[in-house]
Amino acid sequence: MENEIKIKVKDLWFYYHQQPVLKNINIEIESNKITSISGPSGQGKSTFLMTLNRLWENIPGTKVHGSIKINFNNRFEDIFHKSLPLPLLRRKVGMVFQTPNPLPMGIYKNIAFPLKLMGEKNRELNFLKVKSALKKAFLWDEVKERLSQDAGVLSGGQQQRLCMARTLVLKPEVLLLDEPTSSLDETSGRIIEELLLELKKKCTIILVSHYMDQVKRISDNRLILSEGQLKKYQNMEEKLG
């Protein structure tokens, strides 16, 4: 459905050692769109991403006020409520970081690792899931003959797509990306952009990026985070320059 809302953020405050980083954020994020977040460095863009899958809970001295509700199975669920198990939330809301972080193991085992954590033991089914994830990440044709090879030998762009495939193998409904192309060359960055445009057909994407050309190329909705405030602008060409 066009303009369907996937995420509702209401009265969200985030504190680090009593200091507010995010201040009274109220925003709705559309399903199957790429929503970009830009703004000055050190303003809390990565922090906002971490509130969406509760990754902040691993950081000492942090706390959150307000609510974040995500539409799962046609029902909005409060992600901070104890009724929503944290492992389930992080399967549904996947995250890819700025620097690729392949595990010290083979290419296939990297992608299959989340399935192993879930207790999936059907080897044939797991292979099909890994293959599908690598195809979604535009990586299958490049690695299908060397799946047992250590993932560390891949190029930077390939490693980033590997990390995306590892997230996609669980079929997340929301994909969080924190500067996914900042450490890549232009060619690799464009491949990632093409990948995101394809992925938004099946999931909702929230992209932190400081590349304004990239934001303009692939974003459906554009947000600015500054001084703890997250706002949506209608005319980003004027605001971003």
Question: How would you explain this protein's 3D organization?
Answer:
- With 241 residues, the protein is an alpha/beta fold.
- The chain has one domain: P-loop containing nucleotide triphosphate hydrolases (Rossmann fold).
- The protein is built from 9 helices and 10 strands.
- It has helices at residues 45-52, 86-92, 107-117, 123-136, 140-143, 156-168, 186-199, 212-218, 236-240, and strands at residues 5-16, 19-30, 34-38, 62-72, 75-78, 93-96, 174-178, 204-208, 221-226, 229-232.
- A 6-stranded mixed beta sheet has the order 6-7-8-3-9-10, with helices on both faces. It has a 4-stranded antiparallel beta sheet with strand order 2-1-4-5, with helices on one face.
- The two termini are 32 Å apart.
DSSP helical segment count: 9
Radius of gyration, taken over Cα atoms and rounded to an integer in Å:
18 Å
Give, in order, the helices and strands. Answer: EEEHEEHEHHHHEHEHEEH
CATH top level? Alpha Beta
CATH superfamily: P-loop containing nucleotide triphosphate hydrolases
Strand content: 25-35%
Give start-end ranges of low-pLDDT stretches. Answer: 236-241
Count of domain modules: 1
What is the approximate shape? Answer: globular
**CATH fold-level topology:** Rossmann fold
Order of strands across the main sheet: 6-7-8-3-9-10
End-to-end Cα distance, whole Å, is 32 Å
CATH architecture: 3-Layer(aba) Sandwich
Q: Assign the structural class, choosing from mainly alpha, mainly beta, alpha/beta, alpha+beta, or little secondary structure.
A: alpha/beta
Helix proportion: 25-40%
Please give the largest β-sheet: 6 strands, mixed
